[in-house]
Design a protein that fits this description.
- By secondary structure, this protein is α/β, with parallel strands linked by helices.
- The protein has a single domain, classed as Rossmann fold.
- About 40% of the residues lie in helices and about 10% in strands.
- The strands form 2 sheets. A 4-stranded antiparallel beta sheet has the order 1-2-3-4.
- Strand 5 (about 165), helix 6 (about 170-180) and strand 6 (about 185-190) form a beta-alpha-beta unit.
- The longest helix is centred in the middle third of the chain and has 17 residues, at about 220-235.
- It is globular and about 60 Å long.
């Protein structure tokens, strides 16, 4: 790679495809703990589902077809410099007419084209370092500040001195850090994963009073119950990846069936009864398996995040406080963590808050229209963020 922006096409070698088939052929599955059908998923990914997907992966799934579909997205790669880590090859989808992993943008692209009634967007959807088809980093200390630096530098390199962000999952945290470190560049943010703490009288007396006096709505009660479920029953992966990432990384790197079981559990548990097809599941899993750095690299962010020092004076907990960047929030009922509105208001100058009847953790894939409607409402003429990018009608 040079310093230039190069077109990129995914092209997995025949040798890699043969290798995964050999590994699948040697897979050895465990017995299933007996349980009724309704209770089966409480133990983790059911063996019978892994068996079905394993057989389809071996005998029916066509990666070349999935690869060709992914390559319909406008993709590029370029080098981005990160302080202390040199140049990294960053893979991204960039569309100047419309607008996880970068694959989620594929459902947003056709919905975000501007017209007389809706703002136009230039969308940059990156593969983060250690994910997808961007470089891996094996040197210690590549945490949230470095991920934010990569994305800010990428946007500036592409000619966007000012921009807005949209994120969920790790995108929530990275968006928070971008707003903290680069407020002169990041003009607004929209998030669909919302983490926050109850407001405190010392820092937010009005919100704290509201939180103390007013009862929670039905949405908020159900959300807190969902959060409790996740913290008690669904958080084990996080504890392992944030304390011993190399241990699980070895298993993920060696076995496509381990990777399948590990990821499919989240696709099932974190969505709002989304009807995943076997092709969708295996495409998502394959992107991890064929990623440039390998699937083990993707879990390192958990450890680095939990073991990093303050970022320009802010600890991880501080990032759940006020960041002075205009903020839009979407509450989705099957997200893995949901907070009351009085908690969310602590995060920044809230210009839009929406509640929805459907949707889960992978919102851009499950319910892309909801994300699009929120963005259009924020940035359309008359919207709270219209014209926020200097000299630009689109975003």
């Amino acid at each position: 790679m040079t310093d230039q922006i190069q077109p990129y096409k995914i092209s997995i070698s025949d040798e890699s495809l043969k290798d995964v088939q050999q590994r699948l052929a040697l897979a050895r599955l465990p017995t299933q703990l007996e349980s009724d059908e309704e209770d089966l998923w409480n133990f983790g990914t059911p063996v019978k589902d892994v068996q079905r997907l394993l057989e389809y992966w071996k005998n029916g799934f066509d990666w070349r077809k999935a690869e060709a579909k992914l390559n319909e997205l406008p993709q590029n790669q370029t080098q981005v410099q990160v302080d202390g880590f040199g140049n990294l090859d960053i893979h991204f989808s960039h569309s100047p007419i419309g607008p996880g992993s970068f694959i989620e943008v594929s459902k947003l692209l056709p919905l975000l084209k501007g017209d007389d009634n809706h703002p136009g967007f230039h969308i940059v959807a990156p593969s983060l370092p250690n994910f997808g088809f961007s470089s891996g980093v094996t040197r210690r200390g590549f945490g949230l500040a470095q991920y934010a630096e990569v994305l800010n530098n990428l946007m500036i390199k592409l000619g966007y001195d000012q921009y807005v962000t949209q994120g969920g999952d790790w995108g929530f945290w990275i968006t928070r850090v971008i707003g903290h470190l680069y407020p002169e560049h990041c003009q607004a943010s929209h998030i669909n994963s919302v983490l926050a703490r109850p407001p405190q009288f010392a820092s937010n007396p009005l919100l704290a009073l509201q939180h103390t006096v007013l009862p929670y709505s039905d949405r908020e009660k159900k959300g807190l119950k969902r959060s409790d479920w996740f913290n008690n029953e669904g958080f084990g992966y996080n504890k392992l990846q944030s304390t011993k990432p190399q241990t699980i990384g070895i298993a993920l790197q060696d076995s496509p069936v381990t990777l399948l079981s590990w990821i499919y559990e989240k696709l099932h548990d974190w969505t709002d009864s989304y009807p995943w097809t076997d092709d969708e599941i295996l495409t998502w899993v394959s992107i991890y398996w064929f990623s440039t750095a390998g699937p083990a690299a993707s879990v390192r962010i958990y450890y680095e995040c939990m073991h990093a020092g303050p970022i320009k004076g802010k600890t991880l907990e501080d990032l759940l406080g006020y960041i002075p960047v205009k903020l839009g929030i979407a509450h989705l009922p099957r997200e893995i963590c949901l907070v009351p509105s009085s908690w969310a208001a602590v995060l920044g100058p809230l210009v839009r808050e929406s509640e929805h009847a459907h949707g889960g953790h992978f919102a851009a894939w499950e319910v892309p229209k909801i994300i699009v409607e929120d963005l259009q409402a924020m940035f359309k003429k008359g919207g709270p963020c219209h014209g926020i990018i200097e000299g630009k009608e689109g975003y």
